[in-house]
Amino acid sequence: MKHTINITHRTLEILIHITCWGFVFAFPLFFTQRNNGSINWSAYIHHSIVPTTLFIIFYINYFLLIPFILFKEKNKEFVFSNIVLIAGMAIGLHYWNSFRLMPPPTDRPTPPPYIFYLRDIASLIFSVGLSVAIRMSIRWSETETARREAVKSRTEAELKNLRNQLNPHFLLNTLNNIYALISFDTDKAQQAIQELSKLLRYVLYDNQQMFVPLKKEIDFICNYIELMRIRVSSQVSITTNFDIKPESHTFIAPLIFISLIENAFKHGISSTETSFIDISITETDNEICCTIRNSNYPKNQTDKSGSGIGLEQVKKRLELVYPNAYKWDKYVSKDNKEYTSTIKIYPNNTLNKY
């Protein structure tokens, strides 16, 4: 694909050069047309020497002096080479124009010779400047493309590293939940292991893509919630609302919300008091909104049931995958009994970058 794009750009560049120089070499035709409409080709050849010298000095710079001298920061050599080149071209033009096809009328005053030198030198300098400007713009474009590719490669490497960290973190938390079940309900523990196998299939295979269908991510979250329901008591109310389009074609970064849900189960459940977790994920034409509300029971400092890296990973992944295309609000109610976290993602602003 990249090779095809390069060929297309190169072809377009050649066509632009041919078109522009075609206009330059066609310009003398307006001065060599006879009264009967025919072209005085001898006069045309004589007048074409000026665009020819512009053509020569343009491409000597374009293919030789700029890439092999100027781009290697040999500025003095570049300036000296062009001074010699322009001086030689100007002298050559002067001698060529001295062999005029028709002598000028004797009654018309002839400008001093240095006027013609200045005119020719100015034209040649303009040709050099144009060549430098075009070459520099192409080089800047290539440098910018290379920079973007480097940033994209680095971002993809960082995302892959984050996913590799997230998978063990997620697995560790889930195994801790199953371990807790084994001690008092082996039947639920067996059911939890079956649910875990479904989750691992998604984590190991589908999670390797940069983006996955939103519906598939929702299915994964549903399986995770069902797994978590097994270990919680009847005092915990878990409600969900997944409102996505039936034929949704929206894609999303995998496991982007799972750490928030883990956090809700970690900090939103009390072993002695009534608790609740409310999970809502909705989709509109330009937005994916995930809102998680839960009762707030922060763990004490001695609780090591979680490493705390999950939410930090969410923030890093949002910055990498959805720069300037997301909003994350999180707050605790005034009575400190309810925690709310809302992430709004605008995928249409991001997917075209990958």
Quickly describe the structure.
With 354 residues, the chain is of the alpha+beta class. It contains 9 helices and 7 strands.
Structure write-up:
The chain is α+β, with helices and mostly antiparallel strands and 354 residues long. It contains nine helices and seven strands; from the N terminus they run ααααααβαββαββαββ. It has helices spanning 2-26, 41-47, 49-68, 75-98, 113-182, 186-204, 214-231, 258-267, 309-321, and strands spanning 212-213, 236-243, 251-252, 275-283, 288-295, 326-332, 338-345. Strands 2-4-5-7-6 form a five-stranded mixed sheet, covered by helices on one side. A two-stranded antiparallel ribbon has the order 1-3. Helix 4 (75-98) runs antiparallel to helix 5 (113-182). The longest helix is centred in the middle third of the chain and has 70 residues, at 113-182. The radius of gyration is 36 Å and the shape is rod-shaped. The relative contact order is 0.07. The model has no long low-confidence stretch (mean pLDDT 83).
